[in-house]
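In keeping with the milestone schedule agreed at the kick-off meeting, the structural modelling team has produced records for the first pair of proteins. Each record is given below as a sequence line and a structure-token line. The laboratory manager (R.T.) confirmed that both were archived under the project's standard naming scheme.
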Amino acid sequence: MKTIRIGNGQGFWGDWLEAPSQLVERGPIDYLTLDYLAEVTMSIMQKQKARDPRAGYARDFIDVMARVWPRCTQHNIKVVANAGGVNPLSCATALTEVARRLGLSSKVRIGVVTGDDIMDKLDELISQGVPLDNMETGEPLATVRSKVESANVYFGAAPIAEALGLGATVVVTGRATDTGLTLGPMLHEFGWKHDDWDRMASGIIAGHIIECGAQCTGGNCQADWQSIPDFWDIGYPIVDAAEDGTFWVTKHDGTGGRVNVAGVKEQLMYEMGDPHSYLTPDCIADFTTIALNQDGPDRVRASGIKGRPPTDFYKVSISYRAGYKASGALIYSWPDAYEKARAADSMLRRRLETLGLKFDAMRTEFVGGGALHGELAGRPSPDAPEVLLRIGVRSEEKSAIERFAKELAPLALAGPPTVCGLHSGRPKAEEIVAYWPALIPRRFCRPSIDLVSAE
């Protein structure tokens, strides 16, 4: 029975830069996937593109490819990444420049998946009766339309598989689902029918397990974490996928971390709603049908997975401007660290009130005094050696945020004693980018696939 090996070397934009090289160099794989996009990442990239039409993609990806591309070409390792962000074509252009510099122009073909960006279609969609209601609040998009900065449809695995079928050795997408990066190669290699729901669901769950990189190989794992070996050299995840839908989660021999049933279960819980209905554009996966078994050291077998047809909608990730924010911090030392921090917080709030400043929200945390657990932590010990006072504010008025920033530093000399540093410096007003999840009928959008030659 045919099998393929898919390794995921990035769980987010900013993940360990050595991970892709580790996967490519320290053992065999057939596909390297790189997952860069989160909801807020799209809005960041949109801002970059507004400043520079050539920007708007994960630039780290270009450096990664410069390192791993020669070996990928030598060993026939294909790469699938959603690094294209809001500008996949510019990302592909940057890749062609790298390929020429490395002398690989004749050996690579870049598949580019576009069509997910519907920013310029929003008004037309609303006029056609597609309200793009907020999935959490029910509000129509029209209430924030003038503030919208990005709008991207989540495409699935099908366009990735199509690009691979056209001969792409590297596939770059915009806003694709995280799971689609793994399912796409399976569809291409195994020739699964798109209505083979059980196998499709198996690929979805395989992708879900490895989409966050080392989070399924021991990273950020609560289960017996003290015994996990060699965190510093943690191995990134690999799926050994079989044609019948069975797959194994593992990592390269000799790398740190650990792959066991408990750790895989933790990752399965990540971003999961109803376990019977994990919704994707490819299918609906039933997490309650997953059978996990330890199948040797650092090797977990998954089988028995069931799936159902997808809905008639795509999910849309929309971002919009929602005012301004700032946060700053002061550190107070023993004795009476917690009481000093509380007194400073009260003093600052009184000064802001006297100035007539109003904020949509103001939040205070006493790190070292129960910030993570709140009232559950009980009253902090009076002997706490240090407490970090962190205050954040939000407002539609940038001027209010800027004045707040100027009121924090004076507490160091004009407030309670033993401030050991203005931890954050003078805070800066930052624009808030808010997330607006919505649904769109599939008939209103369609992915496009282009092949870009580096020659």
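The second protein of the pair:
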Amino acid sequence: MAGGRGTEAQVGVYKRIAPVRWGILGAAGIALRKVVPGMRESALAQVVAIASRDISKAQAAANDLGIPRAYGSYEELIDDPDVEAIYNPLPNHLHVPWSIRAAERGKHVLCEKPIALTAAETRTLIAARDRTAVKIGEAFMVRTHPQWLKVREIVASGRIGELRLIAGHFSYFRRDPADIRSRVEWGGGALMDVGCYPITISRWLFDAEPTEVVGLIERDPDMKIDRMTSGLLRFEKGQATFSCATQLVPYQTMQIFGTTGRIAVEIPFNAPPRNECRIFVDDGSDLAGGGIEAIVFPAVDQYSVQADRFSEAIRGVGSVPVSLEDAMGNMAVIDALFRSAGSRAWEGP
């Protein structure tokens, strides 16, 4: 079923609660190509408005995606009394300011990752959430995808022994000075854009914060963003390593190593919405692959699942999947990696 739904308990929940009325704060590519189409498949999310500083852009998006109302300013959207929740896909430096403004208008907020430019900035968003009593979360859609929930379940079960090492990589190639991800002052660069994924997964699977980290950064000679970054995170019970880049061949992988087994996630971050996903659990008995079990997951749109889970939290069913406290922990690691790259030393988050 769409959105990863299917259990009798879930269907019962959906029949009892009304869909949440959503507004989209900006016409970003990720919103128009991925998040809004996913929301349209959700039984619990109803997109009723979209805003852009260019009204023609908002109207075009509304026409293409079947959204009833289009606004030519962000203020009009967050002032719309019919909108209950906001999805914020604005450039990174606008995440916290506009999420706070929306919260102060009584709107719940699902904000794109990374949640802020720094951990300190995240604290101001936490204060706004506590002051306004709305739900605010970070949009790490991977954390609600069935394949990652299964990985976490397998790790917790002890099937791969004690978790000791997580290794990941996430890269793509795009060198465009006009791209918002190419602006250092706007929070551009590889670590903020894609390195945040293996970091959040590693923290989630270890169920802990790293004690210290070390980072290595290569910057673009003209735009000064980090175009290739590697990190090593030391946890009390293990380690996590990752590399990320914005000027390398597109590729992504995550490997989870235990004392007696290993898990590989085939497409860890950009899970296709119309195709099956697979993870591989290896008992280590045969280097040729004889000890590997493939676990297959039916096609599911992870943005639809994300909308389901956050909408449920708004209606009082369950909790926000990625809390602001969790988001601040991720930002603290990113902050420390940037510091480490400068100091050439281990840094504590």
